[in-house]
Amino acid sequence: xxxxxxxxxxxxxxxxxxxxxxxxxxxxxxxxxxxxxxxxxxxxxxxxxxxxxxxxxxxxxxxxxxxxxxxxxxxxxxxxxxxxxxxxxxxxxxxxxxxxxxxxxxxxxxxxxxxxxxxxxxxxxxxxxxxxxxxxxxxxxxxxxxxxxxxx
Length: 152
Known about the structure:
Elements: E1 17-22, H1 25-36, E2 39-40, H2 44-52, E3 61-65, E4 68-71, E5 74-78, E6 86-91, E7 104-106, H3 113-123, E8 126-131, E9 138-142, E10 148-151
Parallel strand pairs: 1-6, 7-10
Antiparallel strand pairs: 2-5, 3-4, 5-6, 8-9, 9-10
């Protein structure tokens, strides 16, 4: 549902979930699912089960169309191949006001940087700046809520 837990033997890699604060978790989950070629999670069965059991108030649920139900304040996207981290988007009351302390770098290769940045802008990203001062040609964008990401 909201977490990704696993037990790992000492010395093995630990699974990572990246969590974003968001004004509109479903909008950001859709953007990032499209951006990374992930799938936005469909939590209809979980949400309906919690509603039916009386463990979740109707006010905590959002109808997303085509019979899909979601948590009003949470949405997630996951790698359909299982290799990348799960992305969780949680609703917060405040707007983003300063530069991210952490951001995602999308490594697409030098021949695809421009085309990928253009594709992401069509999905709703905005151009922030372009740089070549640290080696690779890098285009920095902002997602629909202003979170920075780099395409390199």
